[in-house]
Each structure stands twice: as structure tokens, then as C-alpha cells.
Amino acid sequence: MTHAPHDSVRLADALRSGRPSGVARSGPEAGDITGICGDFDMRILRDGTWLYHGSPIGRKPLVRLFSTVLRREDDGYWLVTPVERGRIVVDDAPFTAVELTVEGTGQDQCLIFRTNVDDTVTADRDHPIRVVVAPDGEPSPYVLVRDRLEALIVRAVYYDLVELGCERLVDGEERYGIWSAGTFFPLG
Length: 188
Hints:
Distance between the termini: 41 Å
Number of strands: 15
Low-confidence stretches: 1-6, 19-33
Shape: elongated
Strand content: 35-45%
Helix content: 10-25%
Order of helices and strands: HEEEHEEEEEEEEEHEEE
Structural class: alpha+beta
Largest sheet: 6 strands, mixed
CATH superfamily of the largest domain: duf1285 protein
Strand order of the largest sheet: 3-2-1-6-5-4
Number of domains: 2
CATH architecture of the largest domain: Roll
Oligomer: single chain
Number of helices: 3
CATH class of the largest domain: Mainly Beta
């Protein structure tokens, strides 16, 4: 099912107001107030660019609004409001970590990331850093932002992490990684 075409501003207005954007609710008798709209024809590229109908959404406040209602479920990514929900495509991670602030040093340091939608997150046990290494050896580092939603750490920020890293014995093996909020995160 494809969502009726309309521009991203109208979709954002519907999300802000809690009004459905022209889609009947599903199962009102059963108490289900969320209308399933199918696909919103929205895509998030690996570099963090949000597209609507194949065109970049140029207004950062709209992207920020959409990011606040983004959910990751077992069957994919959804924009979810009290009155409707629609699937979107995410090429890699929905966010990018574009800035790093370091507070403290050594095991006591805290790594604070800012995302492309201006969320901030401190890497810790609840917001781990993980690195996936592709078969060609290229690392893809991530930090958990919230509720199964990760940010891909951009290359420049990853290089900053590597510069701050150290070796530590983990399960009997020397590992190179980084400390944040008392937790050691291997960097691949």
C-alpha cells in the first residue's frame, strides 16, 4: 500500500497536529487508533540525508520532527504517531554522529556525540559503541542513540576516537578501543 502523495510539509503538519493525513483509521472498534498508511516514500541515506519522494528534505526542523517519531521494529523502520504510522526505508542507520565532545580522561572520560538531528548521547553501557568490519576491512562504527536507533559515526569522528584509543586486555586478548563512562568499547 502506498501513502497518498503529498509534500513533506503536509506530512509534518499531520504529525505535529495528531491529525491523520487523509487515511482512515484501522480497527477503531478494537481501540486501535493508529491508521496504517503503508509506505511514506521516505528514505534515509547512509550519509544521514532524509529524502521524501526522492528529493532531499531541506528544512532541518522537519527532519528533526520526523526523527522524534521514528521507531525501529522487527519488520523495519516506521514513523509512528498516535493516529497513523508509515514505513520508511533506512539505508544503514537512521542518524549520523557528526560531532564528538570529550569530557575527562582515561577510564573516567565521557564521549558525547551530537547527531545530524541534534540529539546528544553519551556512550555508556546503555548507549554502546559497536564497530562492524566489512569483508574488505572497512569499519562501520555506530553508537546507540535510543530504542534500537543507532547513529553511524562519521569518518572524521571515528578517526578522533581512534586517536583517543588505547589497548586493554579483554578476555585474555589485547584489544584496541576507547573508554567512555567507565565502559571500554573495542574499535574493531
